[in-house]
Structures are given as structure tokens and as C-alpha cells.
Amino acid sequence: MRRALLTLGLLFLWAPILLMAAYAFSGSRVPFEWGGFSLRWFAALAANERLLEAAWLSLRIGAAAATLATLLGLALGWVLARHGRFRGRPIFGILAGAPLVLPEVVMGLALLLLFVGLQAVTGWPAQRGAVTVWLAHASLGMAYVAVLVQARLAGLDPALEEAAADLGASPAVVFRTITLPLIAPSLAAGWLLAFTLSLDDVVLASFVSGPGATTLPVYLFSQLRLGMTPEANALAVAMLGFAGTLGLLAWAIRLRR
Hints:
The protein has helices at 2-23, 40-47, 49-82, 89-101, 104-122, 130-154, 158-166, 171-199, 203-208, 216-226, 231-256.
């Protein structure tokens, strides 16, 4: 019974993705119409500079936003897990977790108003672009990282850090040699989660991006109005192949260890 439910769940998740991947090899221009086996859309993808530029921009913004979100989320999670009760802690906790529950439309509008207000007062940013998208995605991802870090720190045995401190290690050394390696899995998971959130975001980027900073999801969403082509399916196959290769490499390394 469990195996059957697991199989149904996997089919529910993967059937649309595999169907989309199959249509990437169709010769028809209609995205979901089979026109015989063809690789024409992979060639068209390689020649589509705007699509590749949007994909490369999304990857760069995603990596930068995930890195900033991990650093900020580590600080937030550390304060919530290790600093006990302090004045304003309930409000601080609510504000730290607000991006988890706020609709992205509300958050996008709030960030847009913030950037417009900063521009009026300080002159920065001169125009909305990749930097504002990066900051918006980092502000969303850091809340998820903070939750993971706080949960991991709450589950650690404090005796490990106390023993290192009793042996003469400074707080910085204790953090670097004891705490950081123990919470590294949660930081890695938070980075990957923040990267994924940034890579597939449409709403925030629509509010805070400018004409010269069109990310891949925004570009594909705009193509829906003009008529999508199977180039998007070909790009999805390329991304799936890249992610699958990384997964196989990680699995092989784990087996070796």
C-alpha cells in the first residue's frame, strides 16, 4: 500500500515534467502538439540570445541572493535560538518570519515602495534592475534560512560548545570549530532553498526589476501573451539534465565515502 501511494505521488509530481520534456523533442511549433521527433528547438534555444541572457541573469541573481540570504538567515537564526528573551523579541520574531506568510504580491509592493522612497531621499537606486531583484530575493530567502538555522541550533547539545569553552577556546574559535560544522547541513539546505526560490520567482521580480533586468521566469511569463514556443521545453530539459548530473555526482561521492 505504501509503495503504491509513493508511486502515485511520484507520478503526480513527475508526469507533467516528463511530458514537457518529451514535447521538447517535437518538431511542431505548438508547444504541446507532437510533430515528429526533432532537435530543432535545442538549436533554436542555442541561438536565442535573449532567453539565454535571461537564464544566465537568473542564475547569477539566484546564487548571489542565496549567499546573502544564508548570511542574514544565519544571524537571524542565531539571535532567535541563542539570545533568550530580550526586549522586543516577539516583534523581532514576527518581523523575521513575516516573509514566510505574507503574499508575494504584498511583499513585492512593499519593496517597490521602499526602493522608490529610497530613490527620492538618497538617489539610490538610480533605477531598478538586477541589484533590486537581488535584494528582494535575499529578503525572501533569509526567512527560510533563519527557520532552518534556528531549528538546528535548538537541537544541538550545548555541552559540546561548553566543553570547548572550558578548554580555553574563545567564542570565535568555538563557533568556527564546533558550531559552524554542526549547522553546516542546515546552511547548505537553506542556500539551496533560497536559490530555488529566487530562480523561479515571478512576482517579486515583476515589481522590483527594470527593463534591463528581465529574469528567466519573467521572460517566459511575458512570452505567454505572445505565444510560447517549445524553446522553453528545451531549456527545461537542459536544466533537468544539469540538475540530474549534479545529483548523480553527489550520489557517487556519497557512495565512495
